[in-house]
Structures
1.
Amino acid sequence: MTRARLRDVLGTITALALIGFLLVPMPYASLSAGQTQDVLGEMSSSDGTASEVITIKGAPTYPTTGKVLFTTVGVSGSPESPMSAAAIALDWFDPKKQVEPIELYYPPNTTTEQVREQNQADMTSSQDTAAVVALTELGREVPATLTVAMPVTRRDMGVAGEDSYTRAEDVVQEGDVILAIGGTKIVTHQQLLAVVRALPPNEDVDVTVLRAGDEETLTFAPYPAASAEPGSGGGAADSGARLGVLLTPEYDLPVDVTINAQDVGGPSAGMMFTLGIIDLLAPEDLTAGKTIAGTGTIDIEGNVGAIGGIDHKIEGAARAGATWFLVPESNCADISRTPPRGIEIVSVATVTQAKQALESIRAGDLASLPRCAGVS
């Protein structure tokens, strides 16, 4: 074989090897700005029909003039359809995309369908919580039936390395409905949390439950909250006591609230659903014609929690025409890019703060808005 022929053969082999490598599936996912959706508007389904995102029956609703957008993150790559090395390389150098190990979004030994089902369950839970929190914010009491699902371990409560069950295991049974704690009748979920938090840890308390149709009084000592444990590093927000049981709440809503988010999953739209319900039920127009986007989980006490992909969500909101973005206070440090021109970032820690922010924007009182330090 001549030298020139050998060079051609080696070149062909190298080229084929390079092409083969670029087509190799890689265990990475690529994140980018996803879709947005106005919770005050309609959402189209796969068959082309459209329906309102939030439907309320049993109470008067009021016209709105603006938009309240929830935001999402687009994820490319899955266990069944991994991205190629070539696609990963292209996205790696795209400043608007973020390449991460795929196990951050698809844990080992899980399928895309399993992750989708969990995301749908999280979305459903966030919708239920949003309805309760919105009505509570508007001064409506939402009674709850609080049923014991199971006792939990100390590890479940945030104490590292402690697998022993809490003291509740010896007396509480699955299916018990909590009626009173320490002589205080429990009506709402928020009330239970407040009463338990005020209990002195490690001291016996009487807990009245409904068991198989009969009332029984159980006595046991609650544990300190995880943050109250020595060396836990927790703060005052999680101080006090914990009963040490997992509860399944069932809420008796005074109005019928239905949220239709189609196939969008995950809990991160909770705050925006809550604000949408408030805007529809409140006589005053919170949005005042403006397009306000945001993100954040919500718990039953109205606290706004951190989410992932904040830069991409801000990008998607700006692309959708939003001029304001409500970001969880705990996500401020995660904003690594300068927000696009024309959108302003407001930091909130609770639904009450988020509602107040919308009221300030409506009134033009912008100086009072809480901001993320270093983000402009």
2.
Amino acid sequence: MKKAIINEKIGGFTLLEVLVAMAIIATALVSLLSLQSRSIKMMESAEILEGARMLAEKVMSEGELKGVPGGEVKGEAGNYRWLLTEIRLTPEKMPEGVPLLPGRQLSLDIFWKDGKREEKISFAEYLYEH
């Protein structure tokens, strides 16, 4: 008795279909890893800026309360360097349109290293005396 050979297609994927699916998955994974890397860099940048903001709040508060002897004070805190300057307000030093009131201007520059380059953020505050 002879067996009949039946050419039935067995369910499954061809090699080409598997390769195309793997290429799509690989592309998606590379994109996700790139996004993750960018997200980590943005988070580090946000942490640095938040540290600078907190330092600025502290230094400016001390400058408000104690004043700035000699008109300029430098300091360091962690990875940051800072320069606080105080200027007595005179008509020549006032921005246009701002009325002259007795007081002073505090300016704060905070510096830090980001790789090989130095970054800077500046703050200014006008304090009027009553």
3.
Amino acid sequence: MKQKLHAKARQIAQSPATKKALIAMKPEKSVWGFLGIVLFLIVPEIIAFIWGAEITAYAKEALLHAGGVEKYYFDFLVMMFGEGGSWVNLAIAAALLVWFFF
């Protein structure tokens, strides 16, 4: 069973359709591709590592007095920064950045 799965995985990896899909997913080598990776993946994680606790404390305090749309906004802030940064997300972003240059 294990060998069948290994053979199937190898077949999928060597498939022309898989290679074409990987090429299509690769970020475009331009300033916008680089900025997209940095601004949408790396910067938010760094902010979460550095100021996550302060942002969460501020949002929890503001949640006590918020109503309407503001309540959803502060709930979102608590959800985003409540646990601090994620090493997994940062590693994925770094891998995308390396993939971007090669």
